[in-house]
Amino acid sequence: MKRLLTLLLTLAALAGHAQPAPPAQQTVPPRPAVAPKAAPASAVVKSQPNQPIYLTLASEAKPQQSTGTNYTLFAAIIAALASLTSAYIALKSKDKDFKNDYYKKMIDKRLSAYDDIESILNNLSHVVNVEKLVNKKPESVGAIFKFFESDESFHAFMNKLQSVIHKGFWLSTGCKNEIIDFYNKLSEIGKELKVYENQNFNRDELINAGLKYYNSIDKVRIRVYLLMVEEIIEIQNVEKFFKGLYPDVKKLTALKKRAGLIE
């Protein structure tokens, strides 16, 4: 844009100096009559009866005055530059609008994934105090997360984790890995306690597992929360997010080998 304006001003200056000033008219004073001589090749002889003879040299002929062609050229240049400038601005504006729309869709997808993360964190905010009878008196033996209360609540929580994993592409690598590791750990607990086998399921064993893993799950909750807050702050930086999707060099090389892209 700056280059177009500079070119426009330069052409305007050149066009302004291109119009020549009309030359001063030269008048050849009358000369006394002389004896007729042969006229030179570079002169034109004008003669009339009983009139003095005047000689007008070809070099003294009056130049034609400018007809304003330079102003027409100047106007054409301005019109052309104005059209080019308008087209350039319109193209840049359209490109910017397309990029903004694209980034908006990417951000919407990421926000949808973080909505599911928020649902997980809200679920983990519900804690149940566990009491057991000791000498016929109820005593607190610790706390468990609410989804350890029954096999139904455990299944529901696992389904929420699966929903987040399905949208893992739109999460950062760190946050996605935390959720996947958490899901795998709970899957192992569920298989060990036979949560998925209704006939052999023991609710007390599930509660005991909730007591056992409470601290480790709480650490996962805190890490996921901190990662989510950090990423929400930077969620408008779409380019940074896509750059972070690439694994390190060793993992990327291994993936390319598995895909047959390199040997």
UniProtKB/TrEMBL annotation:
Assigned keywords, A-Z: Signal
Signal peptide: 1-20
Superkingdom classification of source: Bacteria
Protein name: DUF4760 domain-containing protein
Protein species of origin: Hymenobacter negativus
